[in-house]
Structures are given as structure tokens and as C-alpha cells.
Amino acid sequence: MQKIYPNAEAALEGLLFDGMLIAAGGFGLCGIPERLIDAIQASGVKDLTIASNNAGIDNEGLGKLLRTRQVKKMIASYVGENKEFERQYLAGELEVEFTPQGTLAERMRAGGAGIPGFYTKTGVGTQVAEGKEVKTFDGDDFILERGIRADLAIIKGWKADESGNLVFRKTARNFNQPAATSGKVCVAEVEEIVPVGSLDPDSIHLPSIYVKRLILGAPYDKKIEFRTVREREAA
Amino acid sequence: MQKIYPNAEAALEGLLFDGMLIAAGGFGLCGIPERLIDAIQASGVKDLTIASNNAGIDNEGLGKLLRTRQVKKMIASYVGENKEFERQYLAGELEVEFTPQGTLAERMRAGGAGIPGFYTKTGVGTQVAEGKEVKTFDGDDFILERGIRADLAIIKGWKADESGNLVFRKTARNFNQPAATSGKVCVAEVEEIVPVGSLDPDSIHLPSIYVKRLILGAPYDKKIEFRTVREREAA
Amino acid sequence: MATQVEAKGWDRNQMAARAAKELKDGYYVNLGIGIPTLVANNIPQGMTVTLQSENGMLGIGPFPYDDQVDPDLINAGKQTISELPNTSYFSSADSFAMIRGGHIDLAVLGGMEVSETGDLANWMVPGKMIKGMGGAMDLVAGVKKIIVVMEHTSKNGDPKFIPECTLPLTGKNVIDMIITDLAVFQRPDHDSPFRLIETAPGVSSQEIREKTTAHYVE
Amino acid sequence: MATQVEAKGWDRNQMAARAAKELKDGYYVNLGIGIPTLVANNIPQGMTVTLQSENGMLGIGPFPYDDQVDPDLINAGKQTISELPNTSYFSSADSFAMIRGGHIDLAVLGGMEVSETGDLANWMVPGKMIKGMGGAMDLVAGVKKIIVVMEHTSKNGDPKFIPECTLPLTGKNVIDMIITDLAVFQRPDHDSPFRLIETAPGVSSQEIREKTTAHYVE
């Protein structure tokens, strides 16, 4: 069983179709599946619905797919820092389902865990609750949110072994883990592929069962949105 | 902020009351919070409802609390291998809420995650579904299950740092992780307490926020229910 | 007659071997206790099959050598086991997210009764001590394909593949394939009837008809 | 008058310092962007307070030195940060399980409007580009205690602590304490009215009454 593909294009072969739902990992530009986004752009697949916390920035991340008008709808919690997004949204060319960040993460996790719906207090009494079932548990109101089961999940990891066991690095884990589980198929790109047995079995963030196809995406030129630093005290 | 207590009795001080709901980690006799169970037995607290996958065996694990009649009700998925349990159950002295193993794990996880209810296909059309709301999502029936928010969670870990970050070892993780999150307060016992900074921040199974009190429970004489081995081939 | 049946049907290991024919390269599989466990010994050479244990492990290895027994390393049957190079551990919540979420390709379970519409009963007998369903209800509800391996008839000779289960259900309309000591039944989806696709050596279709009360096609 | 107010009220850092007085030893805290971030600079010496970042981190350290900037290590505001010896990382799903589940002791957020019944509006202005609520709705719904830090009045001098929010809500009946540049309001529970418990140096209760349309007790 070979999970390793030579490149992103090969790894996505046969998985893309117009109108599909894709779950994408990443938070801002941290831990985004760059190679896979590039290959989706190159494929020309269109009318995509994408579930992702953010929508990239102009010309970075999912911003690339917005620029080429391949996206019909975004399910996201925060879409600032993206002028083309703003233009399409205000022109009514792009549909957006604003979902609270935690609800979005849980919707992906639920979809991947066979849970079609769950109740949360997040958004009760706000626009987010409109059209949703409200149920009272122990005297408090909660709204019903739906699990997200994506046709495809695209994620970026740090290291994977050849069987597909995968680990993330620092805050680049973010939505990559729940997005991966939400996909009927998950394709992962990583910075390093290591032999089976190299990773600590107690410290696998994403067991191999979730990683159906894998590519080595390195080298990466990781982008930073806000570079904030402090001065070193004089010795 | 000192989380480390000298022993189980001290760590439980002020947390126990009659009629309380306790979530306990462990699977069979693997990864059970032995020291804390002993201290609960010694405290004499009674009318307990305990959510735990199993109920121990005679004189081991939660079996100890059954023997002393401190348990009013068990929420469990499998209670074999326990004669005293069987006796009390058949005599109507002990109430049991049988919950499918995955539903029990998810109920703990949900309770800890602020989710009072979720839908699952597990148990649809069976006795487990009796009295529960059924809802149809995309043509399939699901039943509503409730999150468990315990008054106290007791768990067994492998190592913790002094701030409460905790890791488990191999299959001893099991219910310890979801049980920990389900507790309004979680008390953990571990085999080793290490200085802050000793554990890999990418590999913490239970972040310190969940561990309110901590004891060193070592040395442990870990029990095995079914010792199964293979022969070494002759050289 | 019962002794005749045992002589000419499949034995436990042969039933497990028959179930193992349903494995495919790359499959992630959960095996129940009893005959299903024997499927692990019948994985074809060169095929990668990864075994899952509900208590939080992917990549179950064989029983350990005597000096490598580890109380922290057990399977869902609470037996000591060993790990493999591709093993990963996770919590029970994550384990059943995997199961319930449809990520496991195949589960092989034992059964007391299966109905002609694919209901399974295998967790309790009214009047006897209830031990609990463990993870069985989650497995049948979540795993992509469910195979039941069981004797064709009870010790009294009563059929176990029947029109409707008499025992409390583990799952409703969940079984894809039934492997008994005498025959194999399969259905392509959960709306279709089971079809008799195979009989054990020396067993006739006629004999299967006589020992089965469930409706099935041939 | 506006200039007078600024002269005699609390400045941004003083507002953050006031919020920091609500910290307790052992607290786990989430700080929003803007003034709330400054609370981190005001944690009393010797007190252990662990900061959470929604994107999956407990134990936020200070901004990194220039040569230690790591693109894989950012806070929820997408700023580069550093880690501490007690840091742990986890997924966004686990992060919000922590938030929604009531495990975080305190969150300090900015606000556009707060109603007298504790509603908060801070995520969108109709007619303007909507950027999204990010994690704000989850925080106000899940965290044990919510403090809003905001200017007492808008740039036009309009009160921001008002009878009912005019902007779309972030959360209904969720705020426990309001710290403005002029005063502090608090309520013991979500059924009680807010009480004016403090005014900034040089600010009278009379002035607060004039600049507040929300009902509160003194």
C-alpha cells in the first residue's frame, strides 16, 4: 500500500470535481497546505465550497483560488486581510457562511467523528442562531450545529512516516487535525517523510488511517502575517 | 500555584460529597487511578454515580468501591469479570446505565467541551435508544446522547510536569483523557513528576489546564487481566 | 445430525480464513473477540492490513514474548499484546471518533443472531447477567463493512440467521456479510436481501435452506 | 469635552492594568487583540497566570527576539510569539473544547457596545465589510468570567454601555465586568444588574451617569 505520491498534482488525481466541498487546514498563513492549493488552482476545478478558518490573503493561501474565481462559497470564521475576497463578497459573487471559530473546528471534528449534529451555546441569541434549532438543556439554550463531512481534506503537516502517521509543529497544528478527520479522503503535504518506526507512537497527532495520500512539499518558504519582536536587553 | 499534593487523601480534600458524579479513567485494569480509588474508599463517601468504561474486578479498581457499597449507580459499557457487581446488580442494589463504549467516551468528551448533547447512529433501533430523541439527518436516523459533566474526574497518567501538563503511556491513555476533561475538577495520579520544561510541548496529551491537583502515585504494581504471550522461535 | 455438520463444515480457523479473503491491501480493520481474532493469523503475505483496537491503538502486533509483557499495552479484550513500527496510540474518544466516523474499512464480529434485514444481536440474553455491549454497537453503526462470523445453528440446532432477531439488538440493518461454519451470505447494500454466495465443502444449498429460516436469494 | 475626558480618565495601559487586578494565581486566561493584550504586561510578580491562544496553545511567551522568529509559532492575532517551559500545543478543535467547556477562568475582550443585560456587540457593523467573528462568540459563551475593556463613549461621544445593543450581538447576557477609560461596572451573576464599583481618578459618579444610558446600580 503506497501512500506517497511524487507531487501534489498526482496526489489529487481523481479526487477533484466541480461543486465539491473541501476542508482546508491552517490558521492565517500558518500551516496552510500550499502545494495542494497550488495544484487545485492549476486543475481549474470550480464552484468549490471551502471550509477553512480563514481565506488566505491576496495571492497567498486560499486567496489564490479566490483570485481565479474557483470558489463559490467559504465557510469561515474570519476573512480579514483579503481585498479580492472583499470585492467578490461585496459584489455578491462569493457566498460566505460565517461560523464561529470554535463551532467551525467542532463541526469538522464532528463530521469526522460520525456526529451529524451537536448543541452549543456559542452564538445563541445572535445572527449565527438564525434558522437553527434551539434546545434547552438544564435551563440553558443551545443551538444545533451540523457536522462537516468534506469530499476532500487538504492539510499541511510537519513530519509523516511512510505509513501516514503524522505530526504537526507548534501552532501549525490548528485546523489541520480536525480538517483531516472531516474528509472522506485526506491528502497531506509535509516537510519531511521519515521511515516507519521513526515517530513516537505515543505522540502521533494524526494516525495513519486519516492520511490516504501523502506528498513531500519541502522546501517551504513560510510566510508571516505579523512579524512582532522584542529587543534584546543590553548585556 | 501549587498543584502537587502529598498523597491521594490530601488531593481529594474538600472535593468529595455523597451523591456526587465521578468520572474515572481506565480500561479494564489498564490505567486506572488506583491511589485515588483507595482514598475514595477510605473517605467513606457514598451514593456515588460513577462513569467509567468498566467497573473493575473483584477487589481491584472500582470493584473496591462496589464491595463497600459506596456506589449507587454505574454508567459503563462493560461490567463482566466482577462477581460482587453481578450480585448487587441482580439484587437490584446497584443501578447500571449501559452505554456503548464509544458513546460513553464521547459523552465525557462532549461534557468537557461544553456540548450538552450530540447525535449518533450508535444504538439506533436498540434498547439504548429507548426514551431518547431520534432525529433524521440526510435520510438516516440518529439518537440524541447527553454530555457528561462530572463533579470530579479521577485519572491515572504516566508523567506530569510540575505545572500539570500530562502524558499517558501506550493503551493506558484510553478513557483517562476524556474523563479528565469532563470533570469540574480533575485530580490526577502519575508515575513520575518531572520539572516544567521536561516534556515536549508538541506531545502533551492533557494540557495543564485540566489537571487541578496532582499526586505521585508510584510505585505501582500494575495488574494484568489476561496475560497472553507467544513462544520465542528456537534460534 | 449435529456431529455430521461439524465434520463437513468449516472449523473456526477456516471460518476466520474465509473472512480474511475479504481483506484488501491498505485496509484498517477491527477484529472482535473469539473467531474474529483468528482473522489476524490469515492476512495474506505481502498485504498491509492495520488492526485497530477500540481502547486506543492502531497497528496491533502479536502477543508479546514472555519477557516483554507490558500491563500498559493491551487490546480491547484486555489481553497483553505488542506494538509494531507503525503503531499509534490515542484516547478512547479519538478511537471511537475513528470508528463512528466511518474511517475503519472492515469489522469482523461474532453474533448470536442475524436477521434477514441485517439486524445483529450479540450482546445480551434476557434473564442472564448483562455484561454490557462494550464497543459492539459503535462498531456496527460506524464501520464501513461488517462481517459476522458465527455457527450456522445454535447448540440445539436452531437457525441463527432468521427472519427477525428474538434477542435485543446490537444494531439495526448493519450487517453486510455472514460467514458461518456452513455458508457465506452477502448483500451489496443495506436495501438488498442477502444472497448465498458460497457453501462449505460437502455442504449443499439444500442443507443451507433446511437450516436457515431467514429469507435470502441464491 | 472629549479632550477633558481623555485627560482625566485611564489610558489604554491603565485600563489593562485595572483588568489585570482581576487575575488570580493559577488562572488560565484568554486575552483579545488590542487593549486586552496589554493585560499580559501587568501580571503581578509572583503570580502564575497561563495565557491561552485560540489557535492551539497554552502558555504564551513574549514576542520573540528577532533571530528567534518562527512562522509556526503565532498567536490568535497572527503575531509571532515565543513559548515558555510550560507551553503545550493542541488543535483548534481541542482549543475550543477547552474554551467552550468552561475551563478558561477569564477572558478579556474589546467591545463596541455592551447592554445593561450583559449583551456584547463587537464583531460587525452593518453596511461595513464583515471580517467575521473569529473566536469571540465561542469565548463569551464558554469562558467562566468575561471582562470587556472599551472606551466609555464612541468618538462622537455616544455612550457604549447602553440599554440595548444596536449592533449585531456577539453574545447574549455574557458579560460580567466592564472596564472603560472612566469607570468599572460589575455584576455578581447574569441575573443581576451591573453596579458601578469604581471611577477613574478625577471622574465623578455624576459624570458616569451623564455618559451612560444603560441602567446600573451604584
Question: What does this entry look like structurally?
Answer:
The complex is a heterotetramer, with two copies of chain A (235 residues) and two copies of chain C (218 residues). With 235 residues, chain A is α/β, with parallel strands linked by helices. Chain A has one domain (8-114, 148-216): Glutaconate Coenzyme A-transferase. Chain A has helices spanning 8-12, 34-43, 63-67, 83-90, 101-112, 176-182, and strands spanning 21-24, 48-51, 71-76, 95-98, 117-120, 134-137, 140-146, 152-161, 166-167, 186-194, 213-216. Chain A is globular. With 218 residues, chain C is of the alpha/beta class. In chain C, the strands form two sheets. Chain C has a nine-stranded mixed β-sheet, with helices on both faces. In chain C, strands 7-6-9 form a three-stranded mixed β-sheet, with no helix packed on it. In chain C, helix 3 links the parallel strand 1 (28-31) and strand 2 (50-53). The chains are: A alpha/beta (235), C alpha/beta (218). The interface between A and C is medium-sized, with 20 and 26 residues. Chains A, B: Keywords: Transferase. Chains A, B: It holds the Pfam family CoA_trans. Chains A, B: Belongs to the 3-oxoacid CoA-transferase subunit A family. Chains A, B: GO terms for molecular function: transferase activity.
